[in-house]
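call fold(seq) -> tokens
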Amino acid sequence: MHIRKIGSIVLASALTVFLSTGFAVAQDSAKQDMKTAGTDTKNAAKDTGHAVSTGSKKAYDKTASGTKTVADKTASGTKTAYHKTENGTKTATDKTVNGTKTVGKDVGHGTKVAAKDTANETKKVGDKIAGKPNPQ
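ret:
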């Protein structure tokens, strides 16, 4: 009987050690699961932060590039408008100068014709007063 008692004690001890080890392993497993979940959450937050940072940098770069493009196109458009205005002004000036010359010539010609007509009419009046016959 003594051997039975010792066998029972050994069996009970083994069972107790096995169950307590299993419980400890279960506790360690739950503890490890919590640590893993925390680490996964931390890594996900880091990844999200990096993605947001990358997206922000890309948006900044695209905005800067777009702004530079708009500035370049505005400068180009302004230069084009300046040159077209300059050419239009030169054309208008040239036409004004030519028109003024033409008008000056026409006025000079008209003045000569008017002076000749006035001289002829004055001569006719003088001849009438003098009693000379009117040539036809």
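The mean pLDDT is 79.
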